[in-house]
Amino acid sequence: METPFHNAKPILEKLHLAGYEAYYVGGAVRDHLLNRRIGDVDIATSAKPIDVQNLFDHTIDVGAEHGTVIVLHNNTPYEVTTYRAESEYVDFRRPKEVSYITSLKEDLRRRDFTINAMAMDIDGIILDYFNGKSHLSKKLIQTVGSSADRFTEDALRMLRAVRFVSQLDFTLCPETRLSIKDYVHLLEVISVERKTIEIEKLLKGINPTNALEIIIETGMNAFLPGLEKKQDELKKLRAYELKYL
C-alpha cells in the first residue's frame, strides 16, 4: 500500500547510500501518529544543501541559504532541510543566520511544539526527544523548552498554537497559555497575510470554540486583522458555536 512516507522513501534511501542521515520530520509524523490525513512530507538530513543539490537530478532552490532544498520525486515536491541551529531572531519572526549542525536532536530542539518535534526513520521508528508522543496522548499543546523563548523567536507561533487547539481539539498547557498573554503584543509585527492564513485554518478546525475562547482571554484579537475591536462579537460567536455545533 502506497503512503506519503512510502513515496518519499527513495529520497531517504539515496541520502543514506551517500553516507548521510535522513528522517521524516514535523507535521507528517504527528499526523501519522494521530491517524490523520498526512499532507506534505518533510525530510531532515545531515547533508548540506549543496550535497542535496548534487545528489538529486531535480531540485529547486527555495532557501538553500537557510538549509532548505526542494527535491522533486515523481513530480512530487519534498522539502529537504539540513540539520541546523539558529542565531538570534530579527523582527520576532526570522533567524538572523543559521548554522549547519550534525545532531538531529539539536535540530528538533529549535522547533515550535513538542508534537511537531518528532522524527521517524526509514523503518517507521519514532525518535521522540521532547515527550511529543506523551503530549499527543494527553491532547496537549506545549512548546519545546521555554514558551517565552519560542514566542519571542517567532511571534506567529502563538497564533499557530491556538490554531492547533482548533484543528486537533487539543488544549494549551498552562505555561504556554500564560506566555501567550505575556507576549501576544508581538503579533503586531507579523504580516496580515500570515495571520489571515492561520485564522482561516483555525475557523475550519474541529473545535474553533475553544480557540476563540483563548483569543478572547489573551486579548489576541486586538492584533488580528478585522478582529481588533470585535471582542463582543467573538463572544457571541463562541456562544453560538457552543450551542449549535
Task: Give an account of the 3D structure.
- There is one protein chain.
- This protein has 245 residues and is α+β, with helices and mostly antiparallel strands.
- Helices cover 44% and strands 18% of the residues.
- The chain contains eleven helices and 13 strands.
- A seven-stranded mixed β-sheet has the order 3-4-5-2-1-10-11.
- Strand 3 (59-63) and strand 4 (68-73) form a beta hairpin.
- The chain is globular, with a radius of gyration of 19 Å.
- The mean pLDDT is 90.
Keywords:
single chain; 245 residues; alpha+beta; seven-stranded mixed beta sheet; two-stranded antiparallel ribbon; 11 helices
Poorly predicted tracts of residues:
none
- Find the structural class using helix and strand composition: alpha+beta
Secondary-structure element string: HEHEHEEEEEEEHEEHEHHEHHHH
Strand content: 15-25%
- Relative helix content: 40-55%
Number of helices: 11
Q: How much is the average pLDDT?
A: 90
- Distance between the terminal alpha carbons, to the nearest Å? 36 Å
The largest sheet is: 7 strands, mixed
**Which shape, going by the Cα principal axes?**
globular
Rg, alpha carbons: 19 Å
